[in-house]
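User: Reviewer 2 asked us to show a designed sequence for the structure in our supplementary figure. I'm pasting the structure tokens here. Could you produce the per-position amino acids so we can include them in the response letter?
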């Protein structure tokens, strides 16, 4: 089974999670930043995983456009959807996940979850640092990958889907 992870990221957290998923998938898998790299034809891929991160309640517009433009083809594949998002409440994260992708694709996906977050103040541009300091109340960098969820997410593509 051939797999591809297509992601968008601002500071690298979503890319790191893509790498972790890639490492766990037994099948042939590549990962592509859809903003900085060329996206290949989706035709040869059985499993397609889309990942993005949330800023002020929204996923990157490039991922939304990609999902909408390729919806028909995506609906013919095994789909996984993930977010990196740092809202402290599970309810908020679920809402963000639900709103991040087209409804049809969300319902079609065999795996969907929030898989971690990183607040890396050293990397943040001024405005992001300012906003995050206000929200978080400090400037302590924090990274959390949800290992169990990443394992569960990945399992959907390795069990009974080949
Ligand atoms: C300015 C700013 C705004 C953010 N807004 C949200 C938000 O509305 N909801 C949320 O869950 N996380 C929010 N986050 C957290 C990011 O989603 C989180 O840091 C994520 O890991 C970033 O991933 P990336 O490095 O791949 O872009 C925000 C982070 C920053 C810096």
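Assistant: Here is a per-position design you can include in the supplement:
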């Amino acid at each position: 089974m051939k797999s591809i992870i297509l992601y968008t990221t601002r500071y690298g957290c979503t890319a790191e999670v893509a790498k972790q998923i890639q490492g766990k998938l037994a099948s042939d898998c590549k990962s592509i930043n859809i903003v900085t790299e060329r996206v290949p034809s989706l035709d040869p891929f059985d499993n397609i995983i889309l990942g993005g991160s949330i800023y002020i309640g929204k996923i990157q517009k490039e991922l939304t456009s990609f999902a909408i433009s390729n919806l028909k083809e995506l609906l013919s594949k095994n789909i996984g959807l993930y977010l990196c998002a740092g809202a402290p409440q599970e309810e908020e994260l679920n809402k963000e996940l639900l709103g991040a992708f087209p409804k049809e694709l969300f319902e079609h996906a065999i795996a969907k979850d929030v898989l971690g977050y990183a607040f890396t103040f050293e990397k943040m541009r001024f405005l992001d640092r300012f906003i995050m300091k206000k929200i978080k109340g400090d400037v302590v960098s924090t990274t959390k990958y949800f290992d169990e969820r990443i394992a569960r997410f990945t399992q959907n593509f390795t069990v009974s889907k080949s």
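For the response letter, you might also mention the following. The first strand starts at residue 2 and ends at 7. The chain has a mean pLDDT of 95.
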